Amino acid sequence: MNYLIALIAAGLATGAIYGLVAIGFAIIYKATGIINFAQGEMVMLNAYLGLSIATFSGVGFWALVPLVILASILVGLAVEFLLVRPMLGEPAISIVMMTVGLAVCLRSLVILIWGAEPQVLPVHPAEDVVQILGARLYSTQILAIVCLALVVVGFFVFYRHTRAGLAMRASSSNETVALLMGIDVRRIYALAWGLASVTGGLAGLLVATIYELGPDMFAFGLRSFPAVILGGLDSAIGAAVGGAIIGVLENLGEGYIGRGLKEIVGFVVILMVLMVRPYGMFGTRDVERV
């Protein structure tokens, strides 16, 4: 029983990171209808920027967090302004392929600047071990779970009770009507990319504290994609829940069946969800009347 609880607890910690990355997918899709296949690479880039900020500024971990958030916002806005905005009005597949190209460029850029060798973040929060219901977790793992919970609450309030959130929901529902109502859709797109980059930056910082930094960090984007399919491509809260579920299922698969199963559990879930409920647990079902 203790082994099962330990697997679930560790899976929730990993799933919290998946959830943060998946929220980035959901935010951009909800606002623009585009899947950003460079989300994992943006996670990696933001984490390496955090490494450079910590190295050259000498700040502690808690002072580093807002600096990484700021850097992540700038990265998201730069991508939207330089690459996405000039392609507005183009077919969606063209923008999706642009994100694929961006992913390859960001991987090469990270290796060119920081090298291919794994690196360690020079600052960490306290590495205490906490026992919860028989499961032993590091404080950084608990931090990941708490961070995901706070982000979910923040986005719930943002979408329900702020003008920007309501404008984003309106734009995702009908872009033409939103324009006629005076909503600046380009600003909404920029906001979506900035917020998605922030969630990626937080995920990258957590990965760097729990594991290490390396050019293979982009794989968290691929491994988080099943979470957003499970939760719903247009639901940030669903993406967070999906991340937690995928993290737990991966750990249970590795713990009870075999190590090699961990990498394929998420994609087995994708196949099952697409066959039974293709719009996800919390996604919006499209209904067309003819």
Automatic annotation (TrEMBL):
Bilayer topology: Multi-pass membrane protein
Localization per Swiss-Prot or TrEMBL: Cell membrane
Record keywords, A-Z: Amino-acid transport, Cell membrane, Membrane, Transmembrane, Transmembrane helix, Transport
Bilayer-crossing regions: 6-31, 43-63, 69-88, 95-116, 136-159, 188-213, 225-249, 261-280
Tree of life domain: Bacteria
Chief place of localization: membrane
CDD domains (alphabetical): TM_PBP1_LivH_like
InterPro entries, per database record: ABC_transp_permease, BCAA_transport_permease
Membership in a protein family: Belongs to the binding-protein-dependent transport system permease family. LivHM subfamily.
The protein, known as: Branched-chain amino acid ABC transporter permease
Lineage: Bacteria, Pseudomonadati, Pseudomonadota, Alphaproteobacteria, Rhodobacterales
